[in-house]
Amino acid sequence: MPTPEAAAPAAEEARPGFRLAMSTNNMSDPRRPNKVLRYKPPPSECNPALDDPTPDYMNLLGMIFSMCGLMLKLKWCAWVAVYCSFISFANSRSSEDTKQMMSSFMLSISAVVMSYLQNPQPMTPPW
Amino acid sequence: MKAFCAFCIVLLVFGSVSEAKFDDFEDEDDIVEYDDNDFAEFEDVVEDSVTESPQRLITTEDDEDETTVELEGQDENQEGDFEDADTQEGDTESEPYDDEEFEGYEDKPDTSSSKNKDPITIVDVPAHLQNSWESYYLEILMVTGLLAYIMNYIIGKNKNSRLAQAWFNTHRELLENNFTLVGDDGTNKEATSTGKLNQENEHIYNLWCSGRVCCEGMLIQLRFLKRQDLLNVLARMMRPVSDQVQIKVTMNDDDMDTYVFAVGTRKALVRLQKEMQDLSEFCSDKPKSGAKYGLPDSLAILSEMGEVTEGMMDTKMVHFLTHYADKIESVHFSDQFSGPKIMQENGFLMKDFISWGKGKQKADKNRARVEENFLKLTHVQRQEAAQSRREEKKRAEKERIMNEEDPEKQRRLEEAALRREQKKLEKKQMKMKQIKVKAM
């Protein structure tokens, strides 16, 4: 049985070899667990041009057409508003508030329903 | 005995006499009693019933359609009364009916005949007055369109999701061999790999990788086509577009030298040069063809200086770019990246960056020049800001003096402000004199 004193120098001699093996492993393995950085979502204020403006425009258009359909009793306006709210929903970001989407959608549906309650006759094309 | 027999004979006699009387009553009273006035109202009826004639058929003379009027005997008697009353009418009296009753009747056959001559035009009922389902064809069209949109949304969303997952499954091993952290949404307390993509949209997926030598991290963004939007699908029929993978690698400061370089399709480089501030600032020349360095004609190069291009375009790089030329849109290297944050790269590159003597000095000079220009531009702004701060201070002090209630204190504060202003004026005058002396 080797004595602990004899074992210690042997261990020290083995260490450089161990270190060498470790360094070669590090050379081949590019991963560095100590250099991990967390993900930071890029703030949207920095890139307003890059963000797709389609959902916001469609939301606004939908509301305008809904109000036109309700006030002026135009059925085709109400139908276009429904389409706008659908397009806005399809293009929306996951971080966007769903309440805004739902309010626009419900407004357009109510515009269609109110138009038909006031005047049940079929729609005439605007042209 | 004899009395009893006589009694019986008398009874018999009485019985027979009474029977005879009843018979007489039945036969004779009819004739006698029915002559009373009580039955006078039925006399006509009786007489009519006795003298009842068979039903007579009367035809009007002027009627072409031969309408028939059936009259009973009662009507005959009434007409007979009329005949008795109106004796002066003459021939008309002999007719069974009065012409005046049928005054309009003669016209009716005439008008009906005229109607038969005019053609009958059948007019369609307007659509808005109909109640059938066919009149609501526009509504049905609208609902059908909405259903088609919803169907396309579901199909497109699922296809994008499947594409993203397939891409990730293909590259998972490569990413896990190169990075410690693969997949992070930034919400977890500890930095553990989620091992999945972050869905930003129905067509955009993100993946953050970190924990590697030479770079701080890598953000991969899968920008698919908007397959979930039917309008976009129709627009793409006019203008074909393809899915994009954008990779942004944030290098360590020590591991990258100071230069700006871009290689890619000519169209993409022209667009980048307009959009990116660093490319427009440091790479003012137009994109040059990459054929000089062994690249295909479809690829062009934007570089800050020639040494950078020569350093970048080694055999390994040229081989990689030639092999994937049709898949690459642009590769952009920059240490001055300040414009839109998304760097457009396609492909996964690892490069060891080396420094060189003159090129580095030139690059440093360029950066110093840019900094100077920036300072000049902002000099005016800084001056204005300082001026406004000084004015604000003066105003605040004046207000403090005005608000001071004690007149003695007010006077002392005013004097102090005056002295300070005089000192400043003197200093300025001194400076002006010094400058003049130096100029001389």
Automatic annotation (TrEMBL), chain B:
Residues 47-119, 381-440 are annotated as: Disordered. Keywords: Membrane, Signal, Transmembrane, Transmembrane helix. GO terms for cellular component: rough endoplasmic reticulum membrane. The keyword Transmembrane applies. Residues 105-118, 387-429 have a biased composition (Basic and acidic residues). Residues 60-104 have a biased composition (Acidic residues). This is PAT complex subunit CCDC47. It comes from Fukomys damarensis.
